[in-house]
Amino acid sequence: MKTALLLLVALAVAAGPARALRCHVCSSSSNCEKAQNCAASARYCRTSTKMEPLMGNLVEKDCAESCTPTHSLPGQVSSGAAATLCCQDDLCNRSLQSRAPARTLLPGTALGLALALGLLALLVAPSL
């Protein structure tokens, strides 16, 4: 049992921390690109586009902990049209169109969950 526990700990250490997501982070009147590493808590690359008839377009790209895609149609002149796109791959917010669907689990998260469940099974199995 100690050998199996040591093996699980060694695997957890070898896996290391999950690599940070990379997104374009910028603000411009057109499509902008400036790659940056996100904070560990960021799970999404977000692109918000707002079309203002009187002021022009505004494109904002950033890292986000949560993201809800939205689309709105042009309304009043003051409100304009807006859209928010979300994705979860490195530099996936390069274009103004979403091509990449959101992933449910990051690879590091899945590995951590598998290791935790294996450890729990080893701790519970001897008592059965």
UniProtKB/TrEMBL annotation:
Residues 1-20 form the signal peptide. Keywords: Cell membrane, Glycoprotein, GPI-anchor, Lipoprotein, Membrane, Signal, Transmembrane, Transmembrane helix. The chain crosses the membrane at residues 105-125. It comes from Odobenus rosmarus divergens (Pacific walrus). It comes from the Eukaryota. The lineage of its organism: Eukaryota, Metazoa, Chordata, Craniata, Vertebrata. This is Lymphocyte antigen 6D. The keyword Hydrolase does not apply. One of its GO terms (biological process) is lymphocyte differentiation.
